[in-house]
Every structure is written in C-alpha cells, then in structure tokens.
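call fold target=Adenine phosphoribosyltransferase
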Amino acid sequence: MSDGLAAARASLERLVLDVHDFPEPGIVFKDITPLLADHDAFRTVIEALASAGRDADGNVVVDKVAGMEARGFILAAPVALALGIGFVPVRKVGKLPRETHAVSFALEYGEATLELHRDAVAPGDRVLMVDDVLATGGTVRATRELIEACGATAHAVAVLMELGFLPGRETIGDLSVTTLMTV
C-alpha cells in the first residue's frame, strides 16, 4: 500500500462517523463532514482519489472527472482540479437545464434517476467517475451508461468507501475500482 493511500485510509478511519437509522431505519449512514472540515485529511483523500486518473508514471490518463450527486460533487471537483482537467456533474432528474441523457436505477433503499448533459463529455473522452460510497453499484452503472451514451468511455471509478457486504463490484462488471477503505 502506498504512503498516500495509507494516510488517506487513516484519515477516513479517524474522521468518518456512523449515523444509525439515517435516512431510514436500518441504514448506517457514513458522515464524511468531519473529513471535509479537516484540510490536511481532505487534501490527502483527494490526492489518493486522483491517483485513479493517473498511470504508474503519474501521467493523467483521463479527460474529465464525473461526480455523482450529491456527495460525489464534493469529491470529484477537487479531484478534477488535482488532475488539471474538467469536472462534469451527474445530477438527479430535473436539475440540469439543457438536453440530457437519463438512466433510472435501484438504490440500496429506493430508486433514482440520474442525468448528464448530452454534451458534458465528448466522444472518445476517458472519464474518471468519483463518488463517496460504492454500495449496490447502481449509481456507478447508471453513470457509466450516461457517459457511454455520449460516446465517451468510463475509464475507472474512485470512491472513499466500499460497502463490501453489498454487490457493488459485481454490478459494475469489469470497471477498475479504486477504493480508499472497505467497510
């Protein structure tokens, strides 16, 4: 494990809090706000997530970073800055003002529809997808479908945490996953 990944994992273990029965009974919500409030920990985590958009020599190998609503925005925008490339938001239905592609999917506790502007990524673009948690994989799979509908390629996904007891990796198939911590 690299020093950056180890430091990011230590920050997550120290600063991410469990909130029981939120947003519904039986759900354990992972509160990342203490992590976001700690400048050094947040910077360490962003650099670790950005590594998913670089090759072994540190060269940037993606053209855009897509962040999934809502906590993915908080992480993906600074990852894009760290990589020196653009950020594109993947939003809940009805939040984007221009023509979109849309995909509906099941969540671990409900259903959702995500949208992406039709021109957010160009054909041939390689896109790093960033979110806070990989759970069932539905959000990542839907985002990948949106990216591919634009003619681009989903290069990889980077997440703070993976819920290892849920089938996220099975759902997203052969997509490369960088996770900073499995719970």
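return ok
Strands lie at 17-20, 28-31, 64-68, 86-92, 100-107, 110-117, 126-134, 153-162, 176-182. The chain has six helices and nine strands.
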